[in-house]
Here is the input.
Amino acid sequence: MKFQQRLDIARALGRVLAGQLLSSSEPLPEALIPVPLYHSRLRQRGYNQALEIARPIAKQLGIPLELTLCKRSRPTREQSHLPFKERKKNIRGAFRVTSRPKYQHVALIDDVVTTTNTINELARVLKQAGINKVDVWGCCRATLSK
Here is the structure.
């Protein structure tokens, strides 16, 4: 999906995830934040797969997408190309909050969660900015040998 421009798959995954979330008794967040890409990676790929997954979720659940609160502050190497031990260092300091959050509860949207370094770093920055609860919604949970 991500590397072969299969936006149809991203949207289908978003609809499936939304269906699962509708049947949950957990409280829904106030906003959805797709994991941001650095502008050069976005330009290279042509789309943000996390955003394409998030769009149908936002529509089905009636939750706004928050696309400006958090940005990638620097380019990083692709996590999928790095060994386990290098991933945390690669992503550290890669996100910044652009304004004071108006939310207390958000959900991060990502396609694949492997080591959790990316979402942990993004959640750390958001919590430092004043968000109390950060959920993580991913389409796939992968494992990586250490």
